[in-house]
């Protein structure tokens, strides 16, 4: 029987603190603002966009959505970002991933002002993270939320064997840096990894971000492992599920995140916290 890592509850506590910090800023005449650029109709992005907008409004933050059709031109997206870069009411800019193939995602990312880059995707922010530089800079919200959850549930990372399955710039790569900076021994795996299950069975902490429903079953998990599921997948029935077969893995894990109610709410709570951080940092350094 594993301890369930209750991301929903933990997010609630974090959101309370963020709301308090936001209210203090608002009292000083600064209303933290977030702008979301959404292209097309990716289902995970739609869940994310809806939930974060709802929470931002509840916290009294400014939350703007810029929605474009799938066939939008590169120049239109770049112009929207440049306008947001110069808008003093906007502290945080998100460009939802995935972007359609005809858009140049690298050029788009590089256009976002680093001090408004709430996803921590700009090479300047990623570079600081990989160099473990001190100081204030944004870090991708899902990795930030996962680190908060691991800390809260007293998962000892020093010397731990951590295996990350999934190498995306939004989840896997920043997690690699954060965990490495926390003295874990990190292995990055992906679809090309040979004998993947033999590798995942060695993990003290297994983090899965593949986007493939129930990719990890009981045979892929070591007894007593901590299992973090970043997946946000739909079963043919339409039900929301994760990359981990929760019912099969929960009996062998020591701690495990559910989907929904695990990493997702922590991502959104981290996004709100980091939006307030950016509002403070941009004004006070
Ligand atoms: N630039 C960028 N940054 C992202 O962080 C990003 C992105 N693009 N594109 C899409 C994915 C997906 N994502 C989610 C975050 C939270 C939930 C979430 O709140 N999940 C709830 C779902 C509850 C419900 O069903 O509404 C839960 O897990 O409990 C979902 C999805 C962030 N992403």
UniProtKB/TrEMBL annotation:
It catalyses: (6R)-5,10-methylene-5,6,7,8-tetrahydrofolate + NADP(+) = (6R)-5,10-methenyltetrahydrofolate + NADPH; (6R)-5,10-methenyltetrahydrofolate + H2O = (6R)-10-formyltetrahydrofolate + H(+). InterPro entries: Aminoacid_DH-like_N_sf, NAD(P)-bd_dom_sf, THF_DH/CycHdrlase, THF_DH/CycHdrlase_cat_dom, THF_DH/CycHdrlase_CS, THF_DH/CycHdrlase_NAD-bd_dom. It comes from the Bacteria. Pathway: One-carbon metabolism; tetrahydrofolate interconversion. Keywords: Amino-acid biosynthesis, Histidine biosynthesis, Hydrolase, Methionine biosynthesis, Multifunctional enzyme, NADP, One-carbon metabolism, Oxidoreductase, Purine biosynthesis. GO terms for molecular function: methenyltetrahydrofolate cyclohydrolase activity; methylenetetrahydrofolate dehydrogenase (NADP+) activity. Pfam families: THF_DHG_CYH, THF_DHG_CYH_C. NADP(+) binds at residues 166-168. Residues 5-119 form the Tetrahydrofolate dehydrogenase/cyclohydrolase catalytic domain. GO terms for cellular component: cytosol. Its EC number is 1.5.1.5, 3.5.4.9. GO terms for biological process: L-histidine biosynthetic process; methionine biosynthetic process; purine nucleotide biosynthetic process; tetrahydrofolate interconversion. Residues 140-281 form the Tetrahydrofolate dehydrogenase/cyclohydrolase NAD(P)-binding domain. Belongs to the tetrahydrofolate dehydrogenase/cyclohydrolase family. Catalyzes the oxidation of 5,10-methylenetetrahydrofolate to 5,10-methenyltetrahydrofolate and then the hydrolysis of 5,10-methenyltetrahydrofolate to 10-formyltetrahydrofolate. Homodimer. This is Bifunctional protein FolD. It comes from Limosilactobacillus panis DSM 6035.
């Amino acid at each position: 029987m594993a301890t369930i890592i209750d991301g929903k509850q933990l997010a609630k506590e974090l959101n309370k603190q963020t709301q308090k910090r936001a209210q203090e800023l608002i009292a000083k005449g600064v209303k933290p603002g977030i702008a979301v650029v959404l292209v097309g109709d990716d289902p995970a992005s739609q869940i994310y966009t809806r939930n974060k907008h709802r929470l931002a409004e509840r916290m009294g933050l400014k939350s703007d959505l810029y929605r474009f059709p799938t066939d939008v031109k590169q120049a239109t997206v770049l112009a929207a970002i440049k306008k947001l870069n110069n808008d003093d009411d906007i502290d945080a800019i998100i460009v939802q991933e995935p972007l359609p193939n005809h858009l140049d995602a690298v050029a788009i990312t590089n256009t976002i002002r680093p001090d408004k880059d709430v996803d921590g995707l700009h090479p300047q922010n990623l570079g600081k993270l990989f160099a473990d530089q001190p100081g204030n800079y944004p870090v991708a919200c899902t990795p930030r939320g996962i680190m908060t959850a691991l800390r809260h549930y007293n998962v000892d990372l020093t010397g731990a064997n951590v295996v990350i399955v999934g190498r995306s710039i939004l989840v896997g790569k920043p997690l690699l840096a954060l965990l490495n900076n926390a003295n874990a021994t990190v292995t990055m795996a992906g679809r090309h990894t040979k004998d993947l299950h033999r590798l995942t069975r060695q993990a003290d902490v297994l983090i899965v971000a593949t986007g493939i429903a129930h990719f990890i079953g009981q045979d892929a998990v070591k007894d007593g492992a901590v299992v973090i599921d970043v997946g946000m997948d739909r079963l043919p029935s339409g039900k929301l599920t994760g990359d981990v077969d929760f019912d099969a893995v929960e009996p062998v894990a020591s701690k495990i995140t559910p989907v929904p109610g695990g990493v997702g709410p922590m991502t959104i709570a981290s996004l709100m916290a980091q939006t307030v951080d950016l509002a403070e940092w941009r004004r006070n350094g």
